Structures are given as structure tokens and as C-alpha cells.
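Lab notebook: predicted structure, single chain.

Context: the supervisor wants predicted structures on file for every construct in the current expression panel, including those that have not yet been purified. This is the next one on the list. No modifications to the sequence; it matches the entry in the shared construct table.
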Amino acid sequence: MKYQLQPETAVLDSNGLTVSAGWAVIYNVDAKGEFLQATYQYLPVGVGLPANAYLDAPKNVQDNQAIIHNGQQWTYPKDLRGTIICSTKTGAETIMQEIGEIPDGYTTLKPSSEFDSWDGEKWILDAEKQHQHEVNQASAKKNQLIAEATTQISYLQDAIDTDIATDTEKELFTALKKYRALLNRIDVNQAPNINYPEKPHQL
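Prediction complete. Output recorded below exactly as produced.
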């Protein structure tokens, strides 16, 4: 033929070696077998394909699929990388980093509150968990208020014991002791329905 209008196409034998030099479209993958890109490669006689490259073309896939070569053939597993998933134990969010299905113990459904529990299909409000949180908060507040009152009572007690307390301080001392007694009577298990006693004005 006088003119060669198309580039020569490489021909490979059954061992993967080039028997007729020319160009080939090759499909490159990374170390894990994921498709990277298609490129043209000139193959001299006697050489094979570069590492991590194949002659057979993969098919087009949806956005939620990956293209992977397992060494034998192309596969098309789920690809949810970048998807936010939640632990069904803690509700904590994480981002899918690997190709494949959502791992066991995770869901794409987000809990609506920190007190939700996973029932196997959906998140449901865990009333006991919520109540325990409210009890813990009430207990912390009760202890803080008692500690504040005790500090003031201790100071006033010193003033009274050394006969330097004013009448106002004596009244405040009595009011604070009553206030602390009322705090001690609080049942935190009634949270969140707790009425805290009013602090003496000078506390």
C-alpha cells in the first residue's frame, strides 16, 4: 500500500508478547486495580504490556460504581466513597473511604438526636438514655450549687465563731443553710421536672 493512513496496530500473542509492533489502547489501573485512564502505547516486537495495564476495555458505570480489575477481569463494585455514614452503636458520623458496600454496624441514616438508638432498621428515641442524661445534668447542677453554698456558709461560720459577723451576715448564714438543705432534698431522678430553690440574694 502506497500510504499508511492509520497507525499500525500492535498484535500480541497468547503469551502477551508483541509479535507485530504498533500502537495499542491500554487501560491503566492503580496498585489496587482501580481504573485510572486509557492511553495509547507503542509496543515494539517482543515486549508485553506495561505493569498494571490491560488491553480489554471496561464498560461504563454509574456514579456509585467503581471499575476494578481483579487480575482476571473487570469488576464493578459499589463505590460510596465520600458518603457520610453513622455508627449504629454510637451515632457518630464518619466518611466512607473504601470501595464497597456500607460496612456492618453503619447506616446512611442520621439519628435525629443524641438519644436515638438503632433498632435494626431505623433510629428511635431512647427515652431511658435521654432521662439518664437529664439526671446526670441535674446531679451536676445540684452538686455545683451545694458546693457554692457550702463555701459561703464556711466563710460566714468563721465570722460567727469569732464574733465578728454582722446581723446581715447572720441572716444570710441562716438563709444559706436552709437553701443548702433544700438543695440536698432534690431528687435528681425527677429531672427534668425539678424546681430549684431560689438562691439567697447575696449568694
